[in-house]
Amino acid sequence: MSSRRLIVAAFIVAGCLASPVAVAAPAAAVVPAAPPAEAVLAAAAKAARGEKKNVLVLFHASWCGWCRRLEAVLATPDVAAVVSRHYVRTELTVFERGERKETENAGAETLLDSLAGSDAGLPFVAVLDARTRQPIATSNVAGPGTNVGFPSKDEEVDHFVRLLRKGAPRMTGEEERTIRAAFPTR
């Protein structure tokens, strides 16, 4: 091949490579809709009945720093082992804002309201009977609006442990001490 033909071929190839090509824009990330609260609770209650446990429900939101702190405590290996020994734990998302609104579990706010927790703040914890899904205990200390949230004082940790004990009467003293030790108190 002559050098002239080689140069022309190179220009043609370079021109093809440099020409604009229609490229599809990447699809926007689709956030799947959260399952309805009723479906989440039904699955948790079914599992809890099969395991002869009750249901521990944590109401939370992505913007809630105290929620993340409680989730972190519940996720520590020692505490997670105690909780999973006595409960089927589930979480329901409520009170989200803006574009995160789609991550809420439909019906969770209604359930929270029925537990006297809609004006209590987050996180809100409830122990539900696996068969009836009725509350055994909540993180409200003395009625509506008295939510402990994240236990950070000795009396709040006491209340949190009592609420767990109400739904798990076979919890041992050692398990109770494990839970208490996970909370930094003032």
Sequence-ordered SSE layout with sheet pairings:
Blueprint: H1 3-18, H2 37-51, E1 54-60, H3 65-75, H4 77-86, E2 87-93, H5 108-114, E3 124-128, E4 135-138, H6 154-167, H7 173-181
Parallel strand pairs: 1-2
Antiparallel strand pairs: 1-3, 3-4
What does this structure look like?
The protein is of the alpha+beta class. The chain has helices spanning 3-18, 37-51, 65-75, 77-86, 108-114, 154-167, 173-181, and strands spanning 54-60, 87-93, 124-128, 135-138. It contains seven helices and four strands. It has one domain (37-181): 3-Layer(aba) Sandwich (Glutaredoxin), CATH 3.40.30.10. It has a four-stranded mixed beta sheet, with helices on both faces.
Summary?
By secondary structure, the chain is an alpha+beta fold. It contains seven helices and four strands; from the N terminus they run ααβααβαββαα. It has a single domain, classed as Glutaredoxin, CATH 3.40.30.
Cα end-to-end separation: 85 Å
CATH superfamily: Glutaredoxin
β-strand number: 4
Evaluate the radius of gyration. Answer: 26 Å
Silhouette: globular
> Percent range for helical residues?
40-55%
Instruction: Let me know the largest β-sheet.
Output: 4 strands, mixed
Widest β-sheet, arrangement of strands: 2-1-3-4
Helix/strand order, N-terminal first: HHEHHEHEEHH
Fraction in beta strands: 5-15%
Low-pLDDT runs: 6-14, 16-25
CATH architecture: 3-Layer(aba) Sandwich
What is the domain tally?
A: 1
Counting helices, strands and paired strands, the structural category is alpha+beta
CATH topology: the name is: Glutaredoxin
